[in-house]
Amino acid sequence: MTATATHTELIVTGKPRRHRRHAGHRTPLGFRVSTYVVLGVGAILMILPLLWMVTTSLADSKYATTFPPRFLPETFEIDNYIRIFTDTDLGTYFVNSLVITVPSIVGQVLSSSMAGYALARLRAPGRRFWFIATLATLMIPYEATIIPTFVMFQYLDWINTFWPLIVPQIVGSGYSIFLMRQFIMQIPTEYDEAARLDGLGFFGIWWRIVVPLSAPAMATVAIFTFTFTWGNFLGPLIYISDPDRYPLALGLYAMTQTSNVGQTPEWNLIMAGGMLLTVPMVLVYYFGQRLVYEGQNSLGRIRV
User: Residue 21 gets which letter from DSSP?
Assistant: First the structure.
């Protein structure tokens, strides 16, 4: 009877009958309002430092120290973004960051992809042990390895050079290898078998089949490596003491230290440099977030 009535109503009105949701299933209004308020306050707290950095970068040198503080400057000085290259050493810091970041990204992507392919496809003795050892490295905090790593690089005479910042990224990281391995395991093995019939070896299969199909995971690794390397502050602070080799993050910190000799730092120029440090990371993640989402979805259930 119910089915007949519903069918008749569909014929007469042309629309199916909508079942009303039970009143008890609706979210209480007070809960929804409180949720929006908490999220709104959190969003404001996250956005305010960025807005202050933007406005300060477009203001004069006295804007940051004005009391009571103003939300907007009286005049906007766009030439601050030119002065950071003409009146400071920020251009040198920017080039140093590029010298560190570019080879780090290329090396991290290639080495992690190779290692992930080996762990996912090669049936060599000890493969499970090496995969578990790779996962175990994720449990070791970076701070616990600072001293032994510093001693090792000191023996290699790499202190005050870019090598301690580049080489660890070139050889890959535990998370990047794990991500690549999980993604490659989702690629059908039939592609490998067909490639072997065509005469390709392990390297040929990796380069011609695995690399093109694992582009989302490789893009994820590249974005994470760029974000870490471009904004890295602790590593350069430990290994680099020559101001001419400072990357961008450490160089901006050095610009704030002029107050030690009784001078007031030019916060408008420092914030303009901060925008140069922040905007590339935001843009890279914004335009690559779809690839990051696809790459992260490959993690799934861990198969040893």
Answer: P
| Pair of tokens at residue 180 | 């690549």
Could you tell me the two tokens for 192?
A: 């490998």
Nearest to 265 by CA among 26, 21, 63, 18: 63
Q: Tokens 């009105």 label which residue?
A: 13
Residue 261 has pLDDT above 80, yes or no: no
Per-residue tokens: 26: 């609706």
The DSSP code for 59 is S
- Residue 81's contacts (CB-CB under 8 Å, 6 or more residues apart) are 57, 272, 275, 276
Read off the tokens for 194.
């067909």
What's the CA angle centered on 236, arms 234 and 242, to 5 degrees?
Answer: 140
> 254: helix, coil or strand?
helix
Dump pLDDT digits (tens) for 149-195: 999 999 999 999 999 999 999 988 888 999 999 889 888 889 888 98
User: Whole-model pTM?
Assistant: 0.80
The total of other beta-carbon atoms located within 10 Å of residue 208's CB is 14
**For residues 70 and 267, what is the distance between their CA atoms, to the nearest angstrom?**
15
Question: CA 246, CA 97: separation in Å to the nearest integer?
Answer: 8
